[in-house]
Amino acid sequence: MNVEEEVQRLREEIKKLGQVQTDGSYKVTFGTLFNDDQCANIFEALVGTLRAAKKRKVVSYDGELLLQGVHDNVVITLNPTP
Asked: Boundaries of each Costars domain copy (predicted)?
């Protein structure tokens, strides 16, 4: 799977696990994504996929590097598609 495919799969997982917001975005915590069995099976490197998605402005979150446990409560926002 290439990076673009992984980012697309990440979008799908955030929509499935997150809460839709009034502006059309979705919000989910890093811990929810990291601890989901399906996400663990899909993404070999969830943090790397999140960083690639952030670079492409698909998602937004505070910080650069997310670590399990320490950043479980960091909210990841899937930006609404224009």
From this structure: 1-79
User: Would you put residue 38 in left (φ > 0), alpha (ψ -120 to 50) or beta?
Assistant: alpha
Supply the pTM of this predicted model.
Answer: 0.91
Report d(CA 77, CA 19) in Å as an integer: 10
Residues 25, 79 contacting (CB under 8 angstroms): yes
CATH of 3-78, one of 3.90.76.10, 3.40.50.2300, 1.10.10.1540, 3.40.720.10: 1.10.10.1540
pLDDT bucket at 11, cuts 50 / 70 / 90: very high
pLDDT by residue (tens digit) across 41-76?
888 889 999 999 999 999 999 988 899 899 999 999
Sheet strands side by side (includes 59-60):
19-20, 26-29, 75-78, 59-60
